[in-house]
Amino acid sequence: QVQVVESGGGLVQAGKSLRLSCTASFRDNDIEATGWYYTMGWYRQAPGKQRELVADIYSGRTSYADSVKGRFTISRDNAANTVYLQMHSLKAEDTGVYYCVCQPHSGPLRARDFWGQGTQVTVSE
Questions:
Q1: Burial readout 72-101 (b: 16 or more C-beta within 10 A, e: otherwise)
Q2: How far is Cα 113 from Cα 16, in angstroms, rounded to an integer?
Q3: Three-class DSSP labels, 76-101
Q4: Confidence check: pLDDT of 19 > 80
Q5: Which sign does the torsion angle of CA 47, 52, 57, 61 carry?
Q6: Residue 31 gets which letter from DSSP?
Q7: Please, which residues have CB within 8 angstroms of residue 88's CB and are 6 or more apart in sequence?
Q8: Burial of 5 (0-12, 13-18, 19+ CB in 10 A)
Q9: How much is the pLDDT for 55?
Q10: Cβ distance 27 to 48 under 8 Å?
């Protein structure tokens, strides 16, 4: 199993910045088998809407939703099994619960998704 814990959400005014952090904790045997072969990503869910991908990162490659390109940056510290989402120029439509996901691609945990509990981001006008 992988424990995924997010932090950094909160209430912020439109136009301001916020940084989210997420750490994935593996058991020793699992991280040995998985290595660095896992995607980490951020999804968000606004009230009444489906959960959507915001950004993800794997092996140095990143992808972003069109709505956040140029404003959000995802980065990763492999040694700490931690991923960050730096959000600039926040808009009211960025409001939602942000979920971190860890998706191993090798070892016994491959093809499974491990989700965090979510952190609320609220952007006020």
A1: bbbebeeeebbbbbebeebeeebbbbbbbb
A2: 31
A3: EEHHHCEEEEEECCCCHHHCEEEEEE
A4: yes
A5: negative
A6: H
A7: 17, 71, 72, 73
A8: middle
A9: 98
A10: no
Q: What is the torsional sign of CA 77, 101, 30, 3?
A: positive
For residue 39, the one-letter residue type is: T
The pair of three-digit structure tokens given for residue 53, joined into one six-digit string: 């991908």
pLDDT of 108 reads 86
Residues in the chain: 125
Within 10 A of 115 (CB to CB), how many other CB atoms are there?
15
Query: Which residue in 23, 54, 59 sits closest to 39, CA to CA?
Result: 59
Instruction: Give me the amino acid identity at 2.
Output: V
Strands 82-87, 114-115: pairing is: unpaired
- Judge contact between 54 and 121, C-beta under 8 A: no
Look at residue 111 in the predicted model and tell me its pLDDT: 86
In this structure, what token pair is assigned to residue 42?
Answer: 């951020």
Q: Which of 43, 35, 40, 86 is nearest to 61 (CA)?
A: 40
